[in-house]
Amino acid sequence: MDASKMNYDELLEFALSLAVKIQQSGAETYRVEETITRLLSAYGIEADASVIPNCITVSCKTPDGKNISTLRRVRSCDTQLDAIERYSALSRKLCTEKPDLDEAWALLKSTTANVRHYNAWIIFLGYFLVAFGFAFFFKGTFFDAIVAGFCGLATGFSLKLMGNLHANPFFSTLVSGFILSFFAHCFGHLGLCDNVDAVSIGALMILVPGFLFTNSLRDIIYGDTMSGVNRLVQVLIIAVALVVGTSAAVSFATVLFGGIESGANLVTYSLPIQCIAGMIGTLGFCLWFNIHGHGLLLCLLGSIISWLVYSLCAHFNMNLYGCYFIAAAVVSLYAEIMARIRKYPATSYLLASLVPLIPGAGVYYTMSAIARNDMATFSQKGVETAAIAGSIAIGILLVSSSFRMLSVYKQRRACKKAAK
Question: One digit per residue, pLDDT tens: the chain, 420 residues?
């Protein structure tokens, strides 16, 4: 494109609009920032971008020496991995071909229109499968899994209703946590399930901010401190909402029905059954995360790999945090390799593959300890759960940082060859 005819204000607006689309789809902080800087660099502009979960700021200097800055507030975000893949592919296409802005806007509009979405019934099936699969995964019986699936559906309806009413995350999580926990205890007192803990943990996986917590640690370690702290505050808010909602439900159910025995009928399954259960739960997340096509099968394979690696490490008596660290590192390596083979962002494969490693049971027992006013168990389980999330984050960062450094090295080497 002819630089003399370039409308740099419009170019900046376009780059920001594309970045907002990627941010709203749930992309990592560094991906959003790199989308802006690489796109503007391709059109001959030096730029800096600063991204936090609800705001994007960009400043740049045009070839004629003019300084331009702009800011955009991002009001809502969701995990839409098909959208991340399509917008990332568009970004690469624009950086390579550098079309004029009218064509670029048309491509952005076309990409947005072509993002695939599952219908509402498929999304609710995802909620059911998450709770069903992870009730099995966390040692529940078949009846526990069925009941957990219905609790997952109730949680999904609650989240959908709260979203339609534009409820804030705290209130939405509080209400949904109360509903799933109360339903689980009601089913338990009716004798329709064998273990309320397994039912509650399975459904709770829908609400546990495991990915958000891991991403907050990743941002902080990457150096994106503001973004990481912002996400960490969101995690704490959601955690408090879960504690309040589930504790209130347990107290209310106890008043109505009396106490209920915990951990009485847990079942220890063989490794193949654990992998299948984890895969079913992961399939639910894949539907929820809007993953389509062949990538869906690769994500399910990644979930099996993650739990196999964890189980293998545990078999050789490695400590708990080492098991999670190595499993996360292997899954991150798998995601990076698949991303380069299929030319898609690693995020899709990574998030889904990590699902069996989410410490849902740790979160549940931490909250249960608060409800019982057992501060010793609360401290123990809370620290353990946070350490597990930290181990996962460090395992991911070890691999992803290595691949990013390798990518930078290759780019610099290519530039040196081109200069010769």
Answer: 544 556 778 888 898 999 889 888 887 787 888 888 888 888 888 888 888 878 888 888 777 777 888 888 887 777 788 888 889 889 989 988 888 888 999 999 999 999 888 888 999 999 999 999 999 898 888 899 999 999 999 999 998 898 888 888 889 989 998 998 889 888 888 888 888 888 888 888 888 776 676 667 667 666 667 777 777 777 778 878 888 888 888 778 777 776 665 555 677 889 999 999 999 999 998 888 888 877 788 889 999 999 999 999 999 989 988 999 999 999 989 988 888 887 777 777 788 888 888 877 777 777 777 766 777 777 887 788 878 888 888 888 888 878 777 776 677 776 666 666
Predicted structure pTM score: 0.84
- What is the radius of gyration, based on Cα positions, of the chain? 23
Cα–Cα distance measured from residue 219 to residue 229, given in angstroms and rounded to the nearest whole number: 8
- In this structure, the number of other CB atoms found within 10 A of the CB of residue 260 comes to 16
Distance of CA 349 to the CA centre of its chain: 11
For residue 129, what are the contacts with CB-CB under 8 A and spacing of at least 6? 149, 152, 280, 281, 283, 284, 287
Contact 187, 131 (CB under 8 A): no
How do strand 55-61 and strand 67-73 relate by DSSP bridges? antiparallel
Residue 257 burial (CB count, 10 A): 13
Do strands 46-52 and 67-73 pair parallel, antiparallel, or not at all (unpaired)? unpaired
CA nearest 13: which of 83, 77, 60, 78? 60
For the record, the structure tokens of 318 come out as 């490695």
Cα distances from 56 to residues 13, 36, 47, 72, 345, in angstroms, run: 12, 10, 13, 5, 21
